[in-house]
Amino acid sequence: MPSISLQESSRWLKTNQWLNVRNRIDEICAYISSGNNLIDLANNAGFEYAVLMGWINKDNARRKMYEVALQDRKEWMVQTLLRELHGISTADVRKAFGDDGELLAMCDMPDEVARAIAGYDVDAEGSVRVKFVDRLRAMELLGKNLQMFVEKIEHMGKVTLEHIVAGSMGEARPMVSANPVIEGPTNVAEAAE
Known about the structure:
Layout: H1 6-19, H2 24-33, H3 38-45, H4 49-57, H5 60-90, H6 111-115, E1 117-122, E2 128-132, H7 135-145, H8 161-168, H9 188-192
Antiparallel strand pairs: 1-2
């Protein structure tokens, strides 16, 4: 049996004490639900992720609470992303400038405007050119999330009941019409005209 060093023993004791605080799982789940992750929590607490995950999985109630926290985090991320897309798509670029028409310092801009800035360039004369994030793309992503745009795909070809039955039986049948339709010139002389 391998011996445990004093340092490892101390770490184990610290981990055990940290985990056995009353309602610790509630704190962990609140941390996860707010968009954070277990790896950072373990690192900040000073022990390994595997230890924390093992402690959670050891108890059904803790495991279920953690699974709910993961679902909550997913919803948090969706809401955060939608909020950011909304901010980008509705940012008023005029708020990036002061009353004198000069570009404001980033720290003086409203948050929604600062978030909508993709970058900026300063030329040799000191003029600043600001590049904003693509508002149209942000609106498109929001619209797709709300299923406002339906993309239709048309399929060309002819499918018969015979093809469907053959496919369900595992037979491969070519989808060729008995009477193929040829469009365009039918001979070389017509093609030259």
